[in-house]
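Researcher: We plan to redesign the surface later, but first we want a full-length starting point. Tokens attached.
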């Protein structure tokens, strides 16, 4: 179980007036979410080193996942640009 650490952040009143409390909270949450995703990606990449990618069932599963999920999102992202 991970231990949680509480941070208290003080922000100048001018900044809060300019951007609003909700916007600043949202920004901090997004930043922390990206940091968590970055750490998870590093862990996955480390684990990937131990996976035999040449294994046939792994390649089939990866291709099936791409066909079912990945390729559709990829096309949607390009279409929205």
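Model: Full-length starting sequence:
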């Amino acid at each position: 179980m991970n231990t949680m650490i509480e941070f208290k952040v003080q922000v100048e009143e001018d900044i809060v007036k300019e951007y609003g409390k909700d916007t600043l909270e949202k920004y901090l949450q997004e930043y922390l979410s990206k940091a968590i995703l970055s750490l998870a990606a590093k862990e996955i990449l480390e684990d990937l080193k131990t996976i035999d990618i040449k294994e046939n069932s792994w390649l089939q599963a990866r291709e099936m996942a791409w066909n079912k999920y990945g390729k559709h999102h990829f096309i949607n992202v390009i279409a929205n640009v």
